[in-house]
Specification:
By secondary structure, this protein is α/β, with parallel strands linked by helices. It folds into 2 domains: 8-60 and 392-399 and 418-442, Roll (Urease, subunit C, domain 1); 62-375, Metal-dependent hydrolases (TIM Barrel, Alpha-Beta Barrel). Helices cover 30% and strands 24% of the residues. The protein has 13 helices and 16 strands. The strands form 2 sheets. The chain has an 8-stranded mixed β-sheet with strand order 3-2-1-4-13-14-15-16. Strands 5-6-7-8-9-10-11-12 form an 8-stranded parallel β-sheet. α2 (107-120) links the parallel β6 (90-95) and β7. α4 (168-179) crosses α7 (219-236) and α7 packs parallel to α8 (248-259). It is globular. 55% of the residues are buried.
């Protein structure tokens, strides 16, 4: 007796979230790692090697988290970070180049990291490159040719070699070279002089408690640098991407320069939407982030901007410092800045955004999947449920309620600023290119299952 061969490898039926609509009772069919068909409600699902009926759960495109630090903290690494990613519905990360102990500013270092991704990653990984503080501009076309999806630079210096401040003249020259590649130039925007003066004044006054961090870096420290970077981008004709913007005015500046012809995009991070400056008193150094958490009125305005489509994407800025790097209770300035978040990004934005009625599910996938993929040249392979795209699927149960506990998360750091937060909406299954990566409460993908993802080259905008 001959059995008919399955037409597809995987079919998932549920509330399928497309870029412009939701198909209640629709299905996504995958073959050889790609989306081969999308079925309308009522259509009989085709024969598949595996068929999942998920009922009222959402079938979302895999999240693309474009602000992740896998190697800033050596204990984390690519494997632990990508395990946390798939457990949270993130199927592609864009990893930052500020590795410990050295950054990724040249071809040899970049190619070595590409090989490490192939051996260690659980989900797919695209890579940032960076530049040296001076004298490294000739590496830009080489790094672009090797598959970097963007270049990351900073106007604030956290470390003179690993995370340097790029002087304005060098930054402008870099922008001009990057413009020729068609890739984005992403910038950490804070004014070094304002921040350094704020810290020095706080130390002189003995003001070393948690809330002093925010006072030392007022909103103008961010917005001045955003304006300066946008002005340089205008001259260079580069696509500039503003990372981790924490106040609404940063987005106002981005839109002002867009109106003048600058190709500019910007992200905020989940911590600026879920936590405010009051968390410093409650969490201490665990909530120390650069730029700092802001006032409640800034948080409320960012939600308004999300709903209005004035923010391109939301990221985690996953920085999984070991607990001892965040444990100096007597001097907030002695602690590392940053917090883990790749695993909680989607659940937090769903709970505080969709379940709370602030944004729609369509907004959610625009902010977490399509927007990031478009910005970094990964669309349409990543970022949306479209035929021909990678079969990166997330099943999210919108009714499930759970409590965030660091002990149950997958990052090596063992802590979270969201400890004890009760959420509605939980990731129950994640597929990367049609293969199960997370299901039944466990990561089932293995190191080496993830792949390095190159961007589709984009023509430089002017």
């Amino acid at each position: 007796m001959t059995h008919a061969r399955a037409e597809y490898d995987l079919v998932v039926r549920g509330r399928v979230v497309l870029p412009d609509r939701i198909l209640d009772g629709g299905f996504v069919a995958a073959r050889e790692g790609r989306i081969a068909a999308i079925g309308s409600p009522g259509a009989a699902p085709p024969r598949a090697a595996r068929t999942l009926e998920v009922g009222d759960a959402y079938v979302l495109p895999g999240v693309v988290d474009t602000h992740v630090h896998t190697r800033s903290e050596p204990a984390e690494g690519i494997t632990r970070c990508t395990e946390a990613a798939v457990a949270g519905g993130v199927t592609t990360i864009v990893d930052m180049p500020y590795d410990m102990p050295a950054a990724v500013p040249d071809l040899d270092t970049f190619e070595h990291k590409v090989r490490d991704v192939a051996a260690e990653a659980v989900c797919d990984v695209a890579l940032y490159a960076t530049i040296r503080k001076e004298g490294g501009l000739d590496e830009i076309p080489r790094l672009a040719g090797a598959g970097a999806c963007a270049f990351k630079m900073a106007t604030y210096e956290a470390h003179p070699v690993r995370f340097p401040r790029i002087p304005d003249g060098e930054l402008l020259a870099a922008f001009r070279r990057i413009a020729a590649t068609g890739l984005p130039a992403a910038v950490h925007c804070e004014n070094q002089d304002i921040a350094d003066r704020g810290v020095a004044e706080a130390r002189r006054a003995g003001d070393l408690g948690p809330s002093a961090h925010g006072r030392s870096r007022p909103p103008v420290a961010e917005t001045e640098a955003v304006g300066r970077v946008l002005e340089l981008a205008l001259d260079a004709g580069v696509h500039v991407h503003i990372v981790h913007a924490s106040v609404p005015r940063s987005f106002d500046l981005v839109h002002r320069y867009r109106a003048e012809g600058v190709r500019a995009t910007a992200e905020t991070c989940i911590q600026y939407l879920v936590l405010d400056e009051g968390a410093m008193d409650r969490l201490g150094a665990l909530a120390k982030i650069n730029p700092p958490l802001r006032a409640p009125e800034h948080v409320a305005a960012l939600w308004d901007y999300l709903a209005a489509g004035r923010i391109d994407q939301v990221t985690s800025d996953h920085a999984p410092w070991a607990r001892e790097r965040k444990g100096n209770t007597g001097d907030i300035f002695a602690n590392a800045s940053g917090a883990p978040g790749v695993e909680t990004l989607l659940p937090l934005l769903y709970h505080h955004g969709v379940a709370a009625g602030r944004i729609s599910v369509l907004d959610l996938v625009r902010l977490l999947a399509e927007g990031p993929a478009r910005t970094f040249g990964l669309f349409p392979r990543k970022g949306a449920l479209v035929p021909g795209g990678d079969a990166d699927l997330v099943v999210l149960d919108p009714a499930a309620r759970w409590t965030v506990r660091a002990a149950r998360l997958h990052s090596a750091c063992g802590w979270t600023p969201y400890e004890g937060m009760e959420l509605q909406g939980r990731v129950v299954q994640t597929f990367v290119r049609g293969r199960p990566a997370y299901e039944d409460g466990a990561v089932v993908a293995r190191p080496g299952d993830g792949r390095f993802v190159r961007p589709t080259r984009q023509r430089a905008a002017r």
